[in-house]
């Protein structure tokens, strides 16, 4: 099952461009944030970030998850 913590993780990593920046924003460690992303990737059996580069770049499925997370987080706030 997908959690809001996982959605926040993908949203902020994509928005801020890196795992360490997102971890600071969410007041957690980079390893905890990476674990949330890995769990989400395992749930959907697909990578959400291109890890061949030093920056956090979304894959095609990652872009879809980012859009979904943006919408669901906005609905939660409303």
Can you offer a commentary on this structure?
Helices cover 68% and strands 5% of the residues. It has four helices and two strands; from the N terminus they run αααββα. It has helices at 4-16, 19-25, 30-44, 60-77; strands spanning 49-50, 57-58. The mean pLDDT is 93.
Major pleated sheet = 2 strands, antiparallel
Order of adjacent strands in the largest pleated sheet: 1-2
Strand content: 5-15%
Structural class: mainly alpha
How many helices does DSSP assign?
4
Rounded to the nearest angstrom, the distance between the terminal CA atoms is 22 Å
Mean pLDDT rating: 93
Uncertain residue ranges: none
**Which outline best applies?**
globular
Question: SSE string, helix = H, strand = E?
Answer: HHHEEH
Features:
78 residues, mainly alpha, two-stranded antiparallel sheet
Layout of helices and strands:
Layout: H1 4-16, H2 19-25, H3 30-44, E1 49-50, E2 57-58, H4 60-77
Antiparallel strand pairs: 1-2
Q: What would you say about this model in short?
A:
With 78 residues, the protein is mainly alpha-helical.
